[in-house]
Write a structure and sequence with these properties.
two-stranded antiparallel ribbon, alpha/beta, five-stranded parallel β-sheet, 3 domains, Rossmann fold, 355 residues, Helicase, Ruva Protein, domain 3, globular, 12% strand
Amino acid sequence: MAEQIKYIVTARKWRPQTFADVVGQEHITTTMKNAILSNRIAHAYLFAGPRGVGKTTTARILAKVLNCLNPKDGEPCNECEMCRSFANSQSLDIIEIDGASNRRIEEIRTLRESVKYAPTKGNYKVYIIDEVHMLTTESFNALLKTLEEPPEHTVFIFATTDVHKVPLTIISRCQRFDFRRIEMSVIKKLLKEIADAEKIKIDDIALTLIAKKADGALRDAQSLFDQVISFSGIDVDSNLLTQMFNLINEEIYFNIFNLDKTRILSKPVSQTFTMTRFLPFLFASYMASSTLLITVSSLSPFINCVTPKLTVIVPVLSYLYFSEAFLVLSASISAFFKSVSGAMIINSSPPHRTR
């Protein structure tokens, strides 16, 4: 019986091995390569940013190139003994520590004792502490002196998704690099390259849905990509993808915006926006805080939307791109409210009370 090939998820299989492979973080990878070429290696780095954007990956590449026997243009060769030992998790000079499970002061004291020893084969002894914000206050304080004046052969690389939880005394002792969310076009391009290499047929619409769902996190996009392949097979259908992600078809929004806009926009604002007596506060607050309104029939500097116990002044800018669309959508919602339970017209003055 033939041995079955072990499956490796896309995020691990396609993990970058050089700075050039890291996408969307050129402002950091370029700085790192220039620092290595000019021999300006700091003793501590802090990588901050959202999940799945390459913090740990960049830290591993930096640690690898610092101990590489044959670096090329600031990149690791991935062929020498040191690079191969690190790829096989056998390197004694690159220590990865999980900050969440090694957060107590006892672990930090052990780390302080091991820092003084020289590297076995490489040039540097590199400590990568992931999720460093999980360390306790006592652990951070115990690390301060070592972090300020470490041995010349020691380099610390911290990675965190919550940099605001890291004490300023730690941040000031490191070179801080802020990782950005990866653009959707970059995620789509990389997923397309992976799909072509894996001989998977996927269209641009499916790639767009995956990239949108990932929200700037490449690892999330690759995990979703694996999930999609398991669901659809090697021929991905974007319609099935919409079902899988439980997304609303964008055609629905276009159908809403393609209503009889001439009839709706010809009315003054006081007749266009009608709401029930039970939802004026919520709807008026939403309009004031999130969207600037426009009326075609009468452009005035300000619109006073007065409801019982609430006055909202909404600025009017006629050149807004989404103004007309929001006006149509708001009118449609108002018409729905009116048809269900009656309407209350928002006038420019409070309603008169009768005895």
